[in-house]
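Predict the 3D structure for this chain.
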Amino acid sequence: NTDVNTTENDADNTTDNTDVNTTENDADNTTDNTDVNTTENDADNTTDNTDVNTEVNTADNTGDNTEDNTARAEIDLTPKRAVQGQDDVLVQGNGYTANGSAEVYLKPVDGPVIEPRTETLAIANETISLLAAIAVPGENITTVAVDENGEVSFRLPSSGYELGDYTVTVIDNEDPTLGDSDSFTVVPVEDGAADNTADNTEVNTDANTEVNTEVNAAENTDVNTADNAAENTEVNTDANTEVNTEVNAAENTADNAAENTGDNTGDDATADNPVVSVDPGTVEDGDSTTVTGEDFPPNTEVEVQLVDPEGNAVGDPVTVTTDDEGAFTTDITVPEGSVAGDYTVDATTEAGDEASADLAVTNGDDNTGDDATVDPTVTVDPGTVEDGDSTTVTGEDFPPNTEVEVQLVDPEGNAVGDPVTVTTDDEGAFTTDITVPEGSVAGDYTVDATTEAGDEASADLAVTNGDDNTGDDATVDPTVTVDPDTVEDGDSTTVTGENFPPNTEVEVQLVDPEGNAVGDSVTVTTDDDGNFTADITVPEGSAPGDYTVDASAETGETATADLTVTAGSGDDNGADNAAANGADNASDNTGANDADNATGGNGSTGNGSTGGNGSSSNGSGSLAQTGAAGTAAMVGLAALLLLAGGAGLVVSRRSGR
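Done. Predicted structure below.
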């Protein structure tokens, strides 16, 4: 047991086993085993490389390696030398019709089975032997079942046979062209020491010589275990075929001799890399998928782990043991509440064999997030609060049973006060109160809700200032403007207010120059931005002057705008003319009448009366020209009365004389 069988398979290989089994399997292969062990097993195969080559070796096989590479039935007998009365001969076959049956024939051999016939001389010798055995198979001793893999397996007790050579033939009942023959020899007890049988246990120790070859079949128990391990001795020669599974493990490289080709796993093996698949390939969080692994080492523990898109393990791993074929099946569950994304399912053995499969994780209706179909939402009630007061924050469609941080943010984007942490319920909803710190500047704030996984939503919150936090403490004072800013009495102006508390009633009042309210006030409600527009009318007949329009919110905010009121054009002319004409007429008429009356009085012959009438007529004409009908009429009437009185006085005096 030299260094030939070490893991490294280094330069210490013996003369008969040089660089044949190295990773490269290069030109150093010996004369009888040139490129036999290369991956391609190509045309360089030699005459001596016969039944070792498997079905994958096609036209490159030499003349001595024909029927081994065809799809046909084959049987193999173990041991080839059976001790009479002690050993059973194990017959194993494959290539038969699956789930069918086959006939077993036994025939003693005294030389050739039959003499070659003329019509078969052109056929290869081994083909003649096979056809001859099938043509004259011997005694039909039993019928055996063929399993689903097309294989047969049964035993022949040597105790029932005489010493000598025997041929066993197995022919398929469904397809008689499928058949094969093999031979064994029954030997006496004294000759059987070196021929270890299939049932041998501790007999096959490392002291057994090279004769312990084909005996080491798959049924050997302790033979192929501890003593036939990775450091297999030279005993493990070309007779160890692919049925020797655990022996020819991945670690067995140089231990397997030159004739062991594709059956020896490792660098020269034909085994595929392990693979993993999941079904279904897309699941919601909280659901499971079935993981199937193939081509892993047989009877080996495999750890199956779900991994998120960032490469982090999600949930606990599942440990499963592969079967004799290196396959396994197990379920793995995506933890409820997992973020949607592209995950992987990783399967790993302790020896480092590994494989992965992709798994898409989605979120159900009750478990939303950034990748979900429904985005989370947040609302506040009320939507407008004074500093120092609270609002109720309600969130929906967040991941279930997840912590959410709720933060008040001012108009400049700065966090205000401490955040509130709340956990969502099974539906991904939450409700919590948040307080606006007293003294906060009025304005448009937001309430932001965020999870650690990045789910987020916001709601607007209008913050106003109470009675104790107005004026200087506010960032912007309310203002009022009027358009037009000069109107006649009876006309209207449009009042525009800005920067008042949002959604608040404002009373708009017209005030005269003496500070008295004029007319009824107008009540209007500001919009979400604290603005309003309203019309106010100057009552007809209001005295001209400098008025103001005052706006007052119910929360105490005020603002004022100037408004100039003028009199209408008709009212101004009437008043001015009345005043002017009254004064002028009184002066003019008085003088005129006095003069006229004096002249009329001097006319003793009646001219005064005539002159008075003339003056009166002239006076009437003069009054009529003023255009002030009422005033002029009164002045004229007074003049007439004076004249009449004067005339009467003259008549009376004359009568007395």
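The longest helix spans residues 569-602.
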